[in-house]
Amino acid sequence: MSYFSYLPEIQYNITGNKYAETSTVRDIFIRNLIKQNVIDNAVTFEKHTIGDTERPDTTSFLVYGDVKYDWIIFLTNKMMNPYFDWPLSSQDFTKMIRGKYGSVERAKKQIYEYRQILQEETDTTVLMEVIIDKDAYNDLPAPEKKRITKYDIEFKRNESNRQIKIIDSQYVEEILKESQSKRYR
After folding, report:
1. Residue 86: which of 58, 67, 105 has the closest Cα?
2. Are residues 80 and 121 in the same domain?
3. Which pLDDT belongs to residue 1?
4. Could you tell me if 46 and 168 are in contact, meaning their C-beta atoms sit under 8 angstroms apart?
5. pLDDT tens-digit map of 69-102
6. pLDDT tens digits for 137-147?
7. Do 83 and 29 reside in the same domain of the chain?
8. Could you give the number of structural domains in the chain?
């Protein structure tokens, strides 16, 4: 049973016309919430890396053995928009880059920002960089220069969505029962 089946039904006028007929729809603006303090303070999380073509339902099946718990994954990770909060596959990422920048090559040529490397990353030190303007960048010696492209930023943003938290499977049925009985705010 889908998460949406637990949401209340409302009459909604989709046209906005005062005299138009209404349709019965699920009120997606009211949702059952796993108590946020339970999510934030839970010690029984596992880390999961979302694979390249992995969808929310397949992740749910992989970690919980059932596709119906994808909504728990979304709520646990504060994902509100499955199109932008879930990582794109490499194929969809390339399509998005082409649509937004014209081509992958073009995105890799468009500079997002310039950085000065203050300290290289080693086994004992962390990378330290600062954002600078183009003139300051041009005056730096080559080892201290770093250009960040639009492609770099988009790729980093997409990859950051791959690391998610998974609630331990022993609590999933309890969460499901709570969501079925919980009243809406």
Report:
1. 58
2. no
3. 45
4. yes
5. 888 888 888 888 888 899 999 999 999 999 999 9
6. 999 999 999 99
7. yes
8. 2
Q: What CA–CA distance (Å, rounded) separates 77 from 59?
A: 13
Q: Are 9 and 80 members of one domain?
A: yes
The CA-based dihedral angle spanning residues 175, 180, 182, 183, taken in that order and rounded to the nearest 10 degrees: 150
Q: Which domain holds residue 177?
A: 3-87+161-181
Both structure tokens of 73: 């994954």
Asked if residue 156 belongs to a domain, the reply is no
Total-model pTM: 0.72
Of 93, 85, 108, which Cα lies nearest the Cα of 52?
93
User: What separation in angstroms does the CA of 61 have from each of 40, 65, 96, 120, 166?
Assistant: 23, 4, 27, 41, 12
Residue 155's nearest CA partner among 92, 69, 70, 102 is: 92
Q: Which helix (H) or strand (E) holds 184?
A: none
The per-residue b/e assignment along 62-82, b for 16 or more CB within 10 angstroms, e otherwise, is ebbeeeebbbbbbbbbebeee
